[in-house]
């Protein structure tokens, strides 16, 4: 047995900012490493809806390819300001203190990390035109489920069911840890 790989330096800085801000709603490292790997397959503009204090953004930044650009929107100006500090001298990351919808005219995106409740809950119809063909949507924070239809807390998880059956996307649920999964939806 050996220790897992070190955190990328930019992710470490994002954790420091989160700690100073008292903010804990960041993506877990397993999801972050997946985001970094997916970012490394992308060119063009990657987006994140719901920056928090920039941990997910930092994971994307750690993987993004030469020429790739990341835009991220955070509704809470205090959090957006904290995240912006991480990327102050990085012209490949733009942090906006704004509702996610202000990023509409910056798309279509090659990757969209959908991590704010409102657009995530409104489903694929809201998102489909924001992603380029072959582009990837990543949705975080699911609990692994092997039944069909997927069930969460005793009810059919309609959101997950819709993404997994939407013919405009090819979607897979990936377990990143025994208690956590993400959806990866590739636009057809
Ligand atoms: C789960 S946290 C984001 C974590 C972050 N993506 C990470 O991995 O470190 C969700 C964030 O979405 C923000 N949010 C909620 N509604 C939003 C909206 N309409 N537009 C932009 N951000 C929003 C919240 O303020 C919160 O900070």
Task: Provide a descriptive summary of the structure in words.
The N and C termini lie far apart (41 Å). This protein is α/β, with parallel strands linked by helices and 188 residues long. Helix 1 (9-21) packs antiparallel against helix 3 (55-63), helix 1 (9-21) runs antiparallel to helix 4 (77-86) and helix 2 (29-39) packs parallel to helix 3 (55-63). It is built from seven helices and nine strands. A hairpin with a 2-residue loop joins strand 6 (151-152) and strand 7 (155-156). It has a single domain, classed as Vaccinia Virus protein VP39 (Rossmann fold, 3-Layer(aba) Sandwich). Helices cover 32% and strands 29% of the residues. The mean pLDDT is 95. S-adenosylmethionine binds at residues 25-27, 48-52, 55-56, 73-76, 79, 99-100, 115-118.
Summarize, please.
The protein has 188 residues and is α/β, with parallel strands linked by helices. Helix content is 32%, strand content 29%.
User: How many strand segments?
Assistant: 9
Q: Strand order across the biggest sheet?
A: 3-2-1-4-5-9-8
Number of continuous helical runs: 7
What characteristic shape results from the CA principal axes?
globular
Radius of gyration: 16 Å
Q: For the terminal residues, how far apart are their CA atoms? A: 41 Å
Runs with pLDDT <50, length 5+?
Answer: none
- Average pLDDT works out at 95
Percentage of residues in DSSP E strands:
25-35%
CATH class: Alpha Beta
